[in-house]
Design goal:
2 domains; single chain; mainly beta; binds zinc ion; N-terminal domain of TfIIb; 3-stranded antiparallel beta sheet; 11 strands; rod-shaped; 121 residues
Length: 121
């Protein structure tokens, strides 16, 4: 075991081991991060959180319902009606023109949507 690992801040035992980004005390089970970057990587540097119209976080594969009618510019045109159910959405890491969801809309086919016009079903 490397000498560099610090003793447990809880019980002062030196039976510390590494578990990913965390340090774990073998004596009391206390877990902590060796530096303060662990928490940061989960929120700021981690995956961007995309939320729906009412603030629910969305995830890949979610089923959502359209809450605002969406005019479709390309293809045959038309309007996606409120209440349309869209299954298996995919979140875009880099939003395209404000659209951060990739989805297959029944009757319209694959297209990009804004998370602000959908609600998690
Ligand atoms: Zn401990």
């Amino acid at each position: 075991m490397p000498e560099a690992l610090p003793p447990c801040p809880e019980c002062d035992a030196r039976y510390t081991y590494e578990l990913g980004v965390l340090l774990v005390c073998a004596m009391c089970g206390h877990e902590w991060s060796a530096d303060q970057e662990a928490g940061e990587s989960q929120s700021a540097a981690g995956e961007p959180v995309i939320v729906d119209a009412v603030g629910n976080p969305l995830a890949d594969g979610d089923t959502v319902t359209v809450v605002k009618s969406v005019r479709v510019a390309g293809g045959g045109g038309g309007t996606i009606k409120i209440g349309t159910k869209v299954r298996g959405i995919r979140l875009l890491e880099r939003p395209v023109d404000g659209h951060d969801i990739d989805a297959r809309v029944p009757g319209f086919g694959p297209m990009k949507l804004k998370s602000s016009v959908v609600k998690k079903a």
